[in-house]
Every structure is written in C-alpha cells, then in structure tokens.
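Per-residue structure
===
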Amino acid sequence: MGGDRGMAEKLHAEIQSGDKGLRAGSIGLLGNVIIGLSAVAPAYSLAATLGYVVAAVHSKAPAMFVIAFIPMLLVAFAYRELSRDTPDCGTTFTWGTKAFGPWIGWIGGWGLAVSAIIVLANVAEIAAVYLLRFLHLDSLADSLWAKVALGCFFIIVMTWISIRGIVISERIQSVLMFIQFGILILASVIALVKVATDHAGPQAVTPQWSWLSPTGLDQSSIAAAVILCIFIYWGWDACLAVGEETKDPEKTPGRAAVICCLILVATYVLVAYAVESFAGFGTTGIGLNNPDNTDDVLTILGEPVAGAVMASALLLVVSISALSSTQSTILPTARGTLSMAVYKALPQRFAYIHPRYMTPAFGTAVMGASALVFYLVLSFASQNTLADSIASLGLAVAFYYGITAFSCVWYFRRTLFDSARNFFMRGLFPLLGGIAMAWAFIKSAIDMINPDYGSTSVGGIGGVFILGVGMLVLGVPLMLACCAADSDFFKGKTLNANTEVKVPDVY
C-alpha cells in the first residue's frame, strides 16, 4: 500500500509539472521522420494492398494515392498545429479531450490502440512469411504453426527493443527504413526504364497521365480504394507521439509529419506507375488482372524486372518493412497509454517509466501482449478472419484521424479569424480533412455490412464490418470500467481545455 501511495504521489507531481519521465531531446528531425516512415512500413503496405486498390479502380491506383494523400496532408496540418500548442504523447487522446471533453478524448485514444493491435498481428505474420520465403523455406512459410511461432517471436523481440529505449529504436529504424526505400525506388526506376526502352515485354503498357485522374469511378469504388489507401499512409503520426522525446518539440514533430506525407505520396505514385506500366492489365502471367497476383503485386518488381537478386531483395525488404512497423507501431501506442494513465484515464500502472531506459515499460509490454493474443486468436480461428482484420483497419484509422482533425478546428475556434494562416491551417484545412475521413468511414462501413465484402461473414453481416466496428464499440465498456475505477478524468479534473500540458525539460 505504501508503494502504491508513493506512485500516486509521484504521478500527481508529474501531472502538475507535465513531466511524464520520458527522455527529452533524444531525437532530431531526421530521427522523427524515420520513425514516422518506418511506422507506415511502405514496402509491406504496398505489398498487402496495391493489388486490391488496382482491383477496385483498375488503372487509377496512382489517382487514389493522390486523392487519399490530400486528406492525409490536411489532417497532418491539424496534427502540426495541435502539437505546437500541446506537444503531448497522448496525441488524439489529449487533443480530443481538450477540445470535446473526456469521453470523446478517451474513445479517440482507444481508436489509436485498436488500429495498432490489429496491424501488429498482421505485420508480424507478414514479416515471418516473407523472411521464410527469402530463406527458401517455402514449406515453413505455408505452415500455420511455423509462421505463427516466428510472428510471435518478432512481436516479443520488438516489444523488448521498444522497452530498451527510444534511441536504440531510432537507430534500428534508420537502417531498416533506408534499405526498404532504396530497394523500392531502385526497382521502380529499373521497371520504368525498361518500359521506356521497350525491354519490359509485350505485356507492358505506356504510362498515362490519365492514371492520375479519378474520372469514370463510382463512389463505392473510390471509397473502397481510399479506405485501403488510408491504411497505406497510416503510421506517419507516430512521429507526433514521440514529440516529448524530440528536440524542439513544438516544431519538429509537426514538420516531420508533413515531410512524411510528402515522401510517401511521391514513393507510392512512383511504385504504382512502375507496377502498372511494367505488368500491364492482362489476366495471365504478371498481368494485374490475374487474380493470382492480387495478394502481392509488389513481387512483380522482383525477378521479372531485375532477376533473382532483386526478387530476393524485395522478399527481404517486405519482411524488413513489416518488422520495422511491428516495433515502430508499439512506440506511439505505448506512449498514448502513458499519457492516458498520467491523466487518470487508465490505471496508474500504465504510467510506469522504466528507471534505466526511461520508456513506458508496462504500457509497452501490455501493447505487445495484446497484439500477441489477438494474433494467436485470429490465426487459429481462421486465416480469412486475419485477412479481413487488415481490411477493417482503415475504419479505426479514419475514426481517430477524423477526431483529431475536428479537435483542431474546435480547440482553436476562438482564434481562427485572427489571421489568414490560422483560418487555413487551424480551420479550413483540418475541417476538410475531418470531413473526408468521416465520409470514408461512413461510406466504407455501410459497404462493409455486405456479407460479400471481404472473406468472412457472420449472420449475413460482413466480417470486415464486425471486426472494424466491433473493435471500436468494445472501447465503450472498457471506458465505462475505467470511469467506475477512477472518475476524476471523466469529471474533467485531471485534463480539460484549460489544463496546461508541458513537456519535460531537456537534459
């Protein structure tokens, strides 16, 4: 009891000072950008979804990357403005609470946690499968027990690395990120050069500017593609969650978020053009309309483009990309639970900071364990259910991105007309981003109810809808349980619109 009282007193003091015990000033702009990009895991994201985007909109995949980029950039402006005012590792939770109150803030934080749990289960398996294929262990890659065992091992190891500290995490992510971007860009350039010099084969087609235009598509096709592209872009906000550990936290994280979005859209459009022009849209061979290629069209940039070495490199880079995302996804989510605990929205145990590594060790361990359990349950329940879970991820992402965007508008509402900059950066742009996210969420959720959407259904309702909406709704009883345990946060005593949230001093 004495230890619990001491912890409570320490946490109360930290709330008053704004110091959560994190290692301030540990990473700069480059390191912040690296964490944001590695959390996106571009190679894995493209491998997992580009084929489905092409299936939904045919040659218009580049257009969908640009269209989805626009609301992402608008939301990034909201993140930048909010992080300048309140550079708190709770991000959506903290900002949603200050703007709309504790209930909206809490459920926004839950949306972020849900998206992390879902993606961790999937990226761990992808990392395992592609590594086994790279090692030419195809029989093990097809074995449920082998890939699950290796996937669980990856989650455990990356959780341990995250506990060890932000600096070692940044260094590991730097290596992994540069490898995957280098190979993606190299393979894409080679593919486009071969198309331009008529060395790509008879299946290749000439790149068209019209691929950047969404004309001729209906709303359902656009919504299906955009919700997939939201997943492809998702993760750049990780650089905001480590803002309190960043040099110049009022400016650096916001700049890093915008830089991440710009790098991603350029890379994705380049890769999409390379794949579409090199592979063409035939129904056989490497053609993009061949259903055998839908699950992973990125391998088209491998052996067909540059031989066995590039094929092996792409297998490795997808595994590395998924592996880096496993670790970088844990980082921001654990820090989100830390912030929630400091303000008594979660049990105080989540606010425990490791005395040596200065990381939210307990929250990090819980996040890793939650992903591990989710992965095991869905893997042995059905591989189709695991696949549907990644399709549902866009709902959770659009949900908490939308809350963040609207929070920006409402939080700064009294100063929107003080200057043209405020009107656009804090008002119009975030508002448009929030509306776009709300449209993507609502339209996709309605379409996902159809039992033919995805690979599973229960009682005539699509499994993607059940997983996506069900995981978000699960937060309601958990939120009520937290309120019953300690209602101070929900009464607005620990965090409200007038609470001054500070970052720790750099030491």
About this structure: The beta strands are 457-458, 461-462. DSSP finds 18 helices and two strands in the chain. Residues 42 and 321 are 7 Å apart (CA to CA).
